[in-house]
Amino acid sequence: MTTVRITRTALTRGTLAALSGLLAGFASLTVAELVSAAVRPEASPVTAVGGAAIDRTPAGVKDWAIRNFGENDKFVLQLGIVVVLALFAVVVGLLALRHRRTGSAAVLVFGAVGAAAAVSRPDSTGAVDALPSLVGAVAGAVLLYVLAGRLTQSRAVAGERPESGWDRRGFLLAATAAAAASTAAGAVGRTLNGRSSQDAIASRAAVKLPAPVSPARPIPAGARLRVPGISSFTTPNDRFYRVDTALVVPKVDANSWRLRIHGQGVRRELEFTYQDLLNRPLIEREITLTCVSNEVGGPYVGHARWIGVRLADLLKEAGVKSPSRGGPADQLVSRSVDGMTLGTPVEDVMDGRDAMLALGMNGEPLPFVHGFPVRMIVPGLYGYVSACKWIEDIELTTFDDYDPYWVKRKWAKRAPIKTQSRIDTPKPFARPQAGTVVVAGVAWAQHRGIDKVEVRVDDGPWRPAQLAEQDTVDTWRQWSYPWKATPGGHTITVRATDATGEVQTEKRTRTIPDGASGRHSVVVTVD
Questions:
Q1: Are strands 258-263 and 391-397 parallel, antiparallel or unpaired?
Q2: How wide is the angle at C-alpha 82 spanned by C-alphas 126 and 103, nearest 5°?
Q3: Fewest 10 Å CB contacts: which of 294, 309, 339, 527?
Q4: pLDDT per residue over 293-323, tens digit each?
Q5: What does DSSP assign to residue 292?
């Protein structure tokens, strides 16, 4: 009986030691959250470590995460970080049961990692960013030391061995108090961090977009097909795809926002406020955007009506000349408030296309997730070289002198959008009834336009689809094809031809390094 009692006691103490580690980890995170409210939300350890993990993740793994998790990829990453921290906390809790000081000191490793990640981020404001992780780790280490002491402190109890006489009551009281205090600290920290974004939210709510001096022409009635299941011509803001590396969506106060233009070939450095841009002549354009991570037939393409300032006009005011006119800079590097860098060919920005600094999207100020207060858009280029969100800096340089974020990770320096098409309906593995089945979808080749879409069923001939009216060469184009479906399994394939005569290739390539290629197919069974 004595042996059984000791074994159960040891098991109980081991379980509580693991709980001690979890409580210490929880305290570290919540105290760090509270301190980050006095520094900045981006300096919290989960955000900082998550950002560092994203920066160091191979491009192929990032692409896999986007493909499999979509816009939930950041949540999955944060969840993974929390799970790893929980396992680490359990280990140090068990370690502290036998080596109290060593286990407690191990918690400081967590703080060191978080601090190093915070100060190494591109948007770091300096050593102060290390404070949340360090203070949180100290709090966690002290708590673990106290809790481990309750588990290892022996009391003289008649008839019991020393290891069975640990301070149960003291442990439970300390653990309960720690859990309550940590929860309160986390709640206060989240509240304060939420309040820090209120100015940004208020600044967006106060924006009234002026009427553009160059409005977009009305979308032709024939540009929208009435086919159930087809993508709407205009993508609502809340359904527009989002692909970026920001774990915390930047909320920037438009009243304090500034944009600087500088670098090679700039005769006069310029700085603009948000109001400066609102006061300038604005253009309004229909433009379809595509992410380079979009697989063949994928969802990361969307269309919106954008309003903003011509980027070429700002560059000309700064004295910038395109390379074809003798300018020394061939790359425009845009920087986001979160440290992201994108590189865009200067020639493409200044060749007459509607490259802009966008202020509005589908009739309202940019949503925060899509770049408020200002983002860049260059039609015809994949987003990673053209669509910098939360932009605050534009530097003129050369492709030889500087590699931006994605280029350092083996993506191509220049990335014109490839001619692509997608079947929206019927869906893969659908079971339509025999008879006329409308096959429909969208095709895009921004800044070239779509001239033809063809559909093939199984190994049959290519048949021309009916094209909706084209709005502009910068927008996608809807199409449909009435298929006389016969019973059985069938493979439906689509291909597009752009206005230059280039036919969408059947050669399948990965998204890395400059976008996926191939033809989209769906398999259906006709009943």
A1: parallel
A2: 85
A3: 527
A4: 999 999 999 999 999 999 999 999 999 999 9
A5: T
